[in-house]
Amino acid sequence: MTQIQRIKSSVGKGKHQHSSVIQFFRDLDPGGKSKGETEREEIDLSRPDNQNEKPDLPASDEVSHNISETDLVSGKWKVKQFMKKLGKKPNSKNMDLNNCALNETDLTELSGLLPFLPELEEINLSWNDFIGGTLKPLTLQLHHVSKLKSLRLNNCRMTAEDIASLGEALEIIPFLEELDLSWNSNIGGKLSLLTKKIQKGSKIKILKVIDCNLAAKDGESLAQILNVIHHLKVLDLSINQKIGCSLKSIAQELKNVSGLEELHLHMCGVKKDGLQSLGTAFQYLLELRKLDLSCNKEIGRGFEDSAAHLASLKDLEVLDLHQCCITEEDLAVLTQVIPLLSSLQELNLSSNKNIGMSSDHLLSRLRFLPKLNSVIISNCSLQKASFASLAEAALHLPDLEILDLSWNKCVGGNLKLLLEALKLATEIRVLILSSCNLAAGDLALLALLMRTGHLAKLQKLDLSYNDTVCDEGWATFYQDLAELKELSELDVSLRPSSCRDCGMWFGKLLTALREMPAFTDLGMQRWVFSGPQQKQLEYFNQDSTRNVRFDY
């Protein structure tokens, strides 16, 4: 605390500077209106500064310390050289050093440059795993960048000392809005070293601690700070299996962050009782737009008592429930509730076997969600009846852009059920039919849609793992492939356990690709090329004006 007081004192002393010193910082972040915002923020690297050159007089007083003009100009040059060494463009507001293989020496050098960057708003040191245990010198200098709004430290191997020193620094960066500490496994069990320093009135809007090995007591610490971070918009606790044990405490305090817009609890060990507590909190989260409860396999039967509160989320746009072991009892409730989420745009129900086998089809009621643009029903054990229900509902989804039906065997031979819906889905960009047991007739139907212009905006098409399609089926499909002018990705790979010779259709495929200006990626794993076909591919790669990546 004594050190913080000294820092505050030095900040106070730095407020009365010679005006030309202030203009130096204006030069670092020019404010002219004749260029774009990015150009105004970038620092010119074209030549070294003339250290005897005197800046023009200013109009601001935000410099942190009493530093001579010569030192300031020299510091500006050092910032340029440091960023140039790392292959980065200097920017007075954004220090992006993501994945730069930084070490302790680099971090020490960076710490010494902060006094020359008083306008800095963003620091990203993510994916620099050699700086763990060395953050303290940097955090001690953060008072020089008191305007800092975003601090990202993903995968930095942070130690307990790093966490504690960062906690001490929070008081001197009062405008911080985003704090991302994800993928630092040593945070687990030590989060309180940071959270206990977060003061009432904190402006933090985004808090991410993904895959940090959080313990139950860390969940309790998070619950406590929800009382003081009332501006919170995004909370991401994903991939922390033990946090589910303290979800009840967290849920009880969510009423204090009523403006929350995103809640991510992917793979958090949420159980039935935790979901029930969360359900009670939904009534306070009326601005919630994204809810991710995916990969919580013990959540089954928890929706019976919580789904009713889910209906209060009128602004919810994204709901992810994939791999949640949803039971028939859950489905009975969700079938009544999900159609009431009138703002819903993205729905992921993948890997929930009961969805496709239920007699009371949730899928048929998707027709009441006209804003849906993404429907992911992969690996749901669809039966012909449930697939027919989905196909009929899709007729009422004019904005559909993404449809994933992969790993549902019943689609094969029955794609005709979806024909009219695909004709109406003029905005569809992604169609995933991987491992659907497709037959030649299904590919002929896709060819018909392409020929008649109904898939004109398609950008990604996944037909992989459909070993059941014969060569004649592929030949028919490739005959009209060139109609997909916006397609960039196509995957026709075979299953890992198989391999097969390319048919005579390979030439048709290459011919089509030459007429597809947006195309970049082709997946053909485990297809075997003959000698002549290999030469055809080599010629295509040499002759083509575009760089198409073949994965085979």
From TrEMBL:
Pfam families the UniProt entry points to: LRR_6
Region (Disordered): 1-65
Gene3D superfamilies xref list: Ribonuclease Inhibitor (3.80.10.10)
Basic and acidic residues bias: start-end ranges: 26-56
Superkingdom to which the source organism belongs: Eukaryota
Coiled-coil regions listed in the entry: none
Protein name: Leucine rich repeat containing 31
Native source species: Crocodylus porosus (Saltwater crocodile)
